Amino acid sequence: MATGGGTSETAVGAGEENAIPTRRFFVALHVGAGFHAPANEKAYRRAMKRACLAAAAILREGSGTSLDAVAAAIQVLEDDPVTNAGRGSNLTESGHVECDASIMDGSSGSFGAVGAIRDVKNPIQVALHLAKEQMAGSSLLGLIPPMFLVGEGAYQWAKSKGMDLVESASGANNWLVTENARAQWVKYTSLLVNTKKLLEHNTGPASEHSVQLEAPGTESENISDVKKILTESFMEDNTDCVMDTVGVICVDSYGNVASGASSGGIALKVTIWSCFCMH
């Protein structure tokens, strides 16, 4: 979805005699690749419209940069439970929300990103803060600000900056984990267990991350059965199977470009509860 300021529109304030040209800008966004159930099309379109309007308000009024506009649009998408970003994200194998987000300013090349971050309502705001510190340059004793933070390190950094966090596990479950995400997690976990049982029944015990296959050019009956189970499971209830990020690109009236993305990752991804940062 895209929107932009018109070239011929004007805005006239109360009592003003001269027309003020409307700021020209551009906003484009998407809500993720994968299978989107037709029944949810209106919900996705509403989310995209709200996100476009949030970015457009900043660019039209000149109250922020294209970087701010990107973050504002993505925050709307993170707060909407219909997307796989922030609230409503796919759950990890242990049943938690761990998000990734990144943002980049085209004019300066400044970049900020977080990976596998828990208990943060809006990961894109942490990425934005990182990018802006990059733009500000070196700080105390010439230390270079971090660019990419992961896991517990990302959470603690966000906490030190006074950012909006979910303070408890119960709070995280109430806000970030939606009923739909939990239902899909239960479904996929059960599917994984049943598939492993089927494989072990037909091929014997296999390691957790490997499947015994027949000779090249042939397909064993158990692999065919697994494919059938997966296909029927994903399509039988006509629900979403969203695997990708949400993304936004903004261009302000000066031609400055910024872009960003946010994602909850694929369902049942391996839990990464680490402390790692890249400078």
From TrEMBL:
The record marks 244-245 as: Cleavage. The active site is at 245 (nucleophile). GO terms for cellular component: cytoplasm. One of its GO terms (biological process) is protein maturation. GO terms for molecular function: threonine-type endopeptidase activity. It comes from the Eukaryota. InterPro entries: Ntn_hydrolases_N, Peptidase_T2, Taspase1. PANTHER family: L-ASPARAGINASE, THREONINE ASPARTASE 1. Heterotetramer of two alpha and two beta chains arranged as a dimer of alpha/beta heterodimers. This is Threonine aspartase.
